[in-house]
Amino acid sequence: MSLVVPRHYKLEVPNKYRTRADYLSNIYFQSDILQDLNLNDRKIDNIRSAISEDAVTWNVLVGMLYESKSYHIPPFRIFGLESFNPILMLWNKEINRTKVSDGLQTSLIQVLKKVEANPASTSEIDAIIWSSQDQKLVYIEAKLNSRPGECPAAKKHQCRMYRETSKKRDNGCSYWGIGKGGNDFHNRFPINYVSKYFDYELPVESEEIKSDCSIYYQLMRNIIIGHELAKILSNKTMFTMVALVNEGHYDTSYYKDFESKLNREIGTEIQTISWQNIRDSLSNNSMVREYLRGHSEI
What we know:
The chain has 298 residues and is α/β, with parallel strands linked by helices. It has one domain. Helices cover 38% and strands 11% of the residues. The protein has 13 helices and 6 strands. It has helices at 15-22, 31-35, 41-48, 53-71, 102-115, 152-155, 183-188, 193-197, 212-215, 217-233, 252-260, 275-281, 287-294, and strands at residues 87-90, 93-94, 127-131, 136-142, 238-245, 269-274. It has a 6-stranded mixed β-sheet, sandwiched between helices. A hairpin with a 2-residue loop joins strand 1 and strand 2 (93-94). It is globular, with a radius of gyration of 21 Å.
């Protein structure tokens, strides 16, 4: 049951009811599934904006999955997947649950607990696509008019790698597990994930010079979590990270510089695909294509 309010009438209602009344107006595909995901208020606020990355991500990826049933084509072929039934997760929540997908969300939670420093605040991946048929796991970092975020601790000048304290310098990174620390620190970080997946030196001791783990924080996080998840799913699972970007609104050198810092022995594949690439790959009758053609930001 929806709440209909005349435009001239200002109705003051609790936030959770107000958001339910308007945030779905930006959703064009499978809004009933979205309602059942039990999203938090912050995510709902993001979706409420028609130009939000979250609203566009839902409409495009869920729309492609939905339309594939009518067109009888693999929904995510543009990402290198030939399966007709891949598993799609948005914001760590499964969209099309099947018997095959039952272990995916559990495995992701397991990886996040192993990799993340604070189990109460885990990473939220924009999109994950897993195809057991293709033996391929795809992570998508979706952006409209921004680039992936930097380390929140470094942005607040709270990076423990180079923060000066009244006693002595703390050489332990509270997120990545870099450097030295007490026993509790090493118990939480048995593996230095940064040195494992990246050709990378420790941060400099300056708040004026940004370190790689700050600049590429979001991309590094996705690479680490993605590789660790792929290993749990199957020892044959290939991992690919897709930077989903808006043509004319992203810095190509940023992604190229990041790719140059990857450990080549790991064999990480990074693809840069634009919303426009997706639009042009769809049939003329596609509703997702029409949605992208009419979007003011694309």
